[in-house]
């Protein structure tokens, strides 16, 4: 009898708890009705090629939705080949305000749409691909932006300049490679740039052990190619490289620390170092960075940061930033020329979308100020799409 009383009391308490729900227990479903539009400026035509696949093609941006209450809004970028989005594919998701797509992404969409870069086929070399942004708040209905049409056009390939290599790139990892070290987080690449030729602008350092090794596969220690691998194959190797004579007989860099244009020619069997070299089409070959916010430069012309032209109007490269002291700096169009400086307002007034880790220092020269976390970032200045990004 006592047990039955206890059970009854428990059931009564349960019913009483459920009956005491207040307004605080009601689940609020946010309504996502404000207008959703892209805020970036689109080009009339986007030129693509396999050679520039790693470049940023477009950075889609928008303003945050205002739903009246603090809540998480999820944005999804969709693409469609048909234009009616019955074939909608999600190509990017973010809770922020931008999603970037590469030239390689555009290449894939152009191929899907039936185009190619061969002038001798019946396939078109230019197609339209359609994009829209979807925002979703809580369990509410999705909201969509107006459709944006993007025209993608192939750079015509005659076949004469097509680079043919056994691999797409060779990877470099080691203490002698400035922005890599012995880690697979940021390995450096020498990409296939000619028949049997791999090349790239690589920063080397003679500090610490200064050793490194080439690899044929990313994140695969077993794919390494050390100094004897090339020496025994009859390669003529730049004098600034030696056998490290360590356990793995790695390469040892013995030159001055800095940025070099590295070329591995597997046909003529040479490994050479030269001055940084532009590999794209830009107004300048190199943009220089100087200032206290740039760890490797400071306010000195002895070791300025160099962003090399490596795409259509694109300057890029790895940079060490520090968020200490003034943390200010400026870009320059000419080496050792203070009068060639380009400060924050120069880009802001020209309509550039500037990475939020950079702001106006509001000093005498209105320099850039780095306000992100101290460390290394892959920096891209895109003069065509007018963006400055730190990744």
TrEMBL record:
Residues 25-115 form the SusE outer membrane protein domain. It holds the Pfam family SusE. It comes from the Bacteria. This is SusE-like outer membrane protein. InterPro entries: SusE. It comes from Winogradskyella wandonensis.
